[in-house]
Give the backbone structure.
Amino acid sequence: MLLRLDDRAAAAHGLRARGPSAPKSEAALRAARGAHGEPGSRIPPGARLRARRRAQATAVSVFAREREVAVRAARAAGAIVLRYYVPGIAAREKRPDNPVTLADLEANGCIHRFVEEAFPDDGWLSEETADSHERLAHRRVWVVDPLDGTKEFIQHIPEFCVCVALVEDGRPVVAVEYNPAADRLYAAVRGEGTTVNGTPAHVSTTARVPDAVVLASRSEDKRGEWDAFKPHVHVKLTGSVAFKLAEIATGAGDATFTLTPKNEWDICAGSLLVEEAGGRATDLEGRPLVFNQPSPLRPGMIASNGVLHEGLLALIGEVAPRPPR
């Protein structure tokens, strides 16, 4: 009699190889499975895989397409910005201390084309597009700053961002910031967390206000707006407000705030990055930020790792310079 390979191995060890047993009936197999607490009916081949794929499909973000468009638009705009990132780039002043370059304008047109092609029925608000109150009739509005940190860009300081956010019913639901100088892409979808180049990002864990590293504006510091806070926190001068918010989302700083009014396009994307990384972003009264308002100018804001938020709000209330009466 011919032996199978495992039969020969058994024989070599003086063991009796087990011959093939008679096939059990289907009923017996079902009974045996039932005796071990397993389902009585056989799961068809591939059923588990199909079920897993169905579960994954239902877990896909409802804003997956919006996120994809925002990422593509930000990267394409970033490529434009990078072409102009050379010393001595020409700029003009839109308003005092508010320069604009060809990089701002071309990046704005690039992002608008992406959004208009993909979502023609959505509203639009951008620093480099004349505002229209027509956007107020839309539940969904794209809030864009094609180059936040133009002053840093002109000075060749690599702390600027392309900002693309989608607001729905006043709340940001998709946010992308891209720093082309460092090739760092920050992205968030409400309820799904924040990533940097695909890696999950989290805010810091600093718990005491005296230990806090607070990212501050160079322009505000030159005007003396941070002098009152320097004895109480560690002030670190950093680039644009959008860049600061992205850094808070990664734990590179503990908080940032400004007493100077900021436009929605400066803070919209970054506020969601911070929140989805585990932090908080509010106005100076601690109230949630609401976007797509009749005036895009917001009277100051604060973003933090969340743990420090109430303490910093209290500090602002205590030491912030009071406006003259």
User: Anything to note?
Assistant: The mean pLDDT is 86. The CA atoms of residues 241 and 266 lie 6 Å apart.
